[in-house]
Amino acid sequence: MAKTIKFNLICDEKPVRTIEDLQNNFSIEDILAYYNNQLLHRWLRVRGYDAELKAVSAITVDEPMKIVKELIRIFDIVADEQKVEEDVYIFTYLKEREKQCALYKQEGYKTERIIKDYEAGYRKLVEGILEHPKDAAFIKANISEIVSNYAWILKLNHRDLFYVLKEKSMLTIMCLLMNKKSRDYFLPVEITDELGNVELDTKRDADKKKMFLEICKMIKCFEFDEILGENLITFAGETDGYWKDLKPKGKQYMIISMGEGDYVRAAGHLGGDLSSSNVLNGFVILDGIDYKSNSNTRQLVYMEV
């Protein structure tokens, strides 16, 4: 009998020989491709992972999101569910764009068709946000797609979009501030005075100033906490003059508000102390969070980027 030839999968550009390798190098794009072309099934078979093969073969769903969640369960992958959903949405948009580009090539790149489809693609993404105003993962994925592939429409439309979102989805406005490519449309630039103090310039660009002031007003309104719900994270507690390791490095967080007298910094960033005045209405984004407070009642309010 011919000997079974074992082969490796390549996930996240690394060779995968075992389930443990798969867990450590799990890539949504790679694993979905291997699942769809059945290479994952063959790999499990030749490696002798019979239980996992049976479970993978028993998957009956056909939506990428549901398939990925099943694979994460089967292979016991440790993953942030919201981040997984965001990545799957982005992966889906990538595949749709590849199909569209192939169609354009087949049709000879007809300019009028491309422009109409481009505008329709942007409208579809915005409409999707308005239909799912509380789905943070979906919103972040749509924003990522917009800033990556519809940037010039966003540049023209961001003002109108802001006032629509102000009424329909406060969460989306917060997500726009989390994205490095879209936040500049709505936040004043930082300026440094002669003493080295950094503050936001609200004197230039009256349009941006108006939107910025609306955002500052929005985060103080009573409905804000209720509307954003579990997307807002809060912490209150005295730290006895020490820094509390609130969130480790490796994930980014946007600071919404903080009590006067408290301090925050990126995780482990010595000398990066930020006071309440430093973060006030700045929507500062940090890699992890260290927090210091001498009060049990003042709150730090932040969101995961």
A few lines on this structure:
With 305 residues, this protein is α+β, with helices and mostly antiparallel strands. It has helices at 19-24, 28-36, 39-47, 50-57, 64-74, 81-106, 111-131, 136-149, 151-168, 170-178, 206-218, 222-228, 276-279, and strands spanning 9-11, 14-16, 190-192, 198-200, 233-235, 244-258, 263-265, 274-275, 285-292, 300-304.
State the helicity in percent bands: 40-55%
Detail the poorly predicted runs. none
Shape: globular
Please give the largest β-sheet: 6 strands, antiparallel
Main attributes of the structure:
305 residues; alpha+beta; 6-stranded antiparallel beta sheet; two-stranded antiparallel ribbon; 13 helices; globular
If you had to describe this structure to a student in words, what would you say it looks like?
With 305 residues, the protein is an alpha+beta fold. The protein contains 13 helices and 10 strands. It has helices spanning 19-24, 28-36, 39-47, 50-57, 64-74, 81-106, 111-131, 136-149, 151-168, 170-178, 206-218, 222-228, 276-279; strands at residues 9-11, 14-16, 190-192, 198-200, 233-235, 244-258, 263-265, 274-275, 285-292, 300-304. Strands 5-10-6-9-7-8 form a 6-stranded antiparallel beta sheet. It has a two-stranded antiparallel ribbon with strand order 1-2. A two-stranded antiparallel ribbon has the order 3-4. Helix 5 (64-74) packs across helix 6, helix 6 packs parallel to helix 8 and helix 8 packs across helix 10 (170-178). The longest helix has 26 residues, at 81-106. The radius of gyration is 23 Å and the shape is globular. The mean pLDDT is 86.
